[in-house]
TrEMBL record:
Matching Pfam families: DUF6886 (PF21820)
Domain of life the protein comes from: Bacteria
Alphabetical list of InterPro entries matching this protein: DUF6886
Protein name in the entry: Uncharacterized protein
């Protein structure tokens, strides 16, 4: 489930949205009101139930072979996503939808690397939302390793201390509940 040319995606468990209006998210670190979306490369970050804590890592040109093997694993692709066992049932049963939005009103957001696209004007979807389907199958088809861990924090600590790119979303909902390292992507 990725956007086509000239599109960005917004993932939601709500299939009834007809217009996206800029707002300040409850978890926002900035005061501006935005409509949030993602591009092709960041879409997999949202193949999860909304509140599911997830730690994600991927290889970059400057990733060391040792970090790649230690965190991603030999022969395991270029990207790994991790969740906790407590979220397995939700991963299996969530009804997640993708809204296709026109890319034109959106601009990159995030530094040093953009991890989202934001718009400051209302945006109407290009059509009805599409069911995302089986989240495990989606990861498998994309060649993204999906790990299930008892506790995300040891993995997150290793990832954030490595040369891999990373992103953590909803980590406050993970076992232990507190951030031990940055959640912003790099």
């Amino acid at each position: 489930m990725r956007p086509g040319p000239g599109q960005v995606l917004h993932f939601s468990e709500d299939p009834t949205i007809t217009r996206f209006v800029p707002h300040v998210a409850a978890t926002a670190r900035q005061p501006q009101a935005f409509v949030w979306a993602v591009d092709h490369g960041r879409a997999p970050d949202y193949w999860f139930p909304r509140q599911c804590p997830r730690a994600m890592a991927w290889t970059r040109p400057d990733t060391t072979p040792a970090d790649r093997e230690r965190i991603v694993g030999a022969g395991c692709g270029e990207r790994v996503h991790a969740i906790e066992y407590g979220w397995l049932a939700a991963m299996r049963t969530v009804r997640l939808y993708a809204y296709r939005l026109p890319a034109q009103p959106f601009r990159p957001f995030g530094a040093p690397v953009a991890h989202a696209r934001v718009a400051t004007v209302p945006v109407v979807p290009l059509g009805p939302p599409e069911p995302v389907g089986d989240l495990f199958e989606l990861h498998a088809e994309a060649g993204i390793q999906l790990r299930v861990l008892t506790d995300l924090w040891p993995f997150w600590g290793a990832v954030t201390a490595s040369t891999l790119g990373f992103s953590g979303i909803r980590l406050r909902n993970a076992v232990g509940g507190g951030l031990a390292a940055p959640s912003h992507p790099r």
